[in-house]
Amino acid sequence: MTAAATAHVFDIDQQTFESQVLQASMDTPILVDFWATWCEPCKSLGPTLEKLAAEYNGAFRLGRVDVDAEQELAAMFGIKSIPTVMLVKDGQVLDGFTGALPEGQLREFLGRHVQPLEGEPAEADSVDPAAETPEAAINRLQQAIATEPAKAELKLELALALMRAGQVGAAQAELDALPANLATDAQAQRLRSELELAHAVQQAPAAAELEQRIQANPEDWQARDQLGVRLLLEGHPEAGLEQFLVILQKARDWNDGQAKKRLLAAFATLDDAELVGRYRRRMASMLF
User: Fold this and answer.
1) In the annotation, is 252 catalytic?
2) Annotated catalytic residue, options 39, 74, 85, 171
3) What is the mean pLDDT of each run of 10 residues along the chain (288 residues)?
């Protein structure tokens, strides 16, 4: 590793993750590389990431997680294959990919979110997602796809816009049709989690009825599970997470460990870094 790369590359463990990644990403994007010494693709990807970290000169920092040494941290993020890379910005996973991408695709990936410090300013006619309604985004993206049907990234954006508009079925269809290279994208994974939660309560009773069932039987795990999802989707994330933690603590194996799955899906959809970090630690303390 060159001296220039060393200044922008660091190792991560569970104790330093919150400060060096979540908190630090409020100022500088952090690219997190989950790797292992025995992983051959990791050996080709790692040096390229270090080269780009040096080239970008502090526009982002590269954090490395050895999944063998940090198994709990890898489990908390649901890492199933390596290398897996996630871009954390403003305390949240913004994007990511799995596998050793060639340098050209890595540059394209970084270019969507990060620019070298001396890079050109953003285009003046770019769309501000925060100022655009979901319906307007759907219309814009459908027109763009008609013009550039081979540009798969537009289809992922359309799926996200459909979900924001509450069109669950249409969002699911677009997500299912994504090519393999985008199916593991961090935004696609977040959308998959959102859809999983939405489907979970399509036929569920109202929150008030679920609360009555829990009062009558605190071990009605199905009611707790459905109430937790409803609370999440209705804007009460902490109350929803508490329901899942009760199940995890009292009936960890219920429904094939569904409480843990719900927590991981919820973490993938929430934008409150402090809340997610706090509940990740509580989940980990119950599991390990």
Assistant:
1) no
2) 39
3) 60 89 88 93 90 88 93 87 89 86 84 66 43 81 88 85 87 87 74 89 91 96 96 92 96 94 89 84 85
Q: Which class for 253: exposed (0-12), middle (13-18), buried (19 or more C-beta within 10 A)?
A: exposed
Q: Does any domain span residue 160?
A: yes
Q: Is residue 120 in a domain?
A: no
Q: How far is CA 267 from the centre of its chain?
A: 8
Q: Which of these is catalytic: 42, 87, 138, 210?
A: 42
Whether residues 89 and 150 share a domain: the answer is no
Number of structural domains in the chain: 3
Cα 40 from Cα 36, distance rounded (Å): 9
Q: What angle do CA 58, 59, 63 make, to 5 degrees?
A: 70
3-state secondary structure 207-242: HHHHHHHHHHCCCCHHHHHHHHHHHHHCCCHHHHHH
The question of whether 39 is a catalytic residue gets the answer yes
The closest of 50, 53, 67, 60 to 14, measured between CA atoms, is: 67
CATH at 187: 1.25.40.10
Range of the domain at 174: 129-200
181/267 Cα distance (integer angstroms): 23
**Residue 214 contacts residue 220 (beta carbons within 8 Å):** yes
Q: pTM above the 0.90 mark? A: no
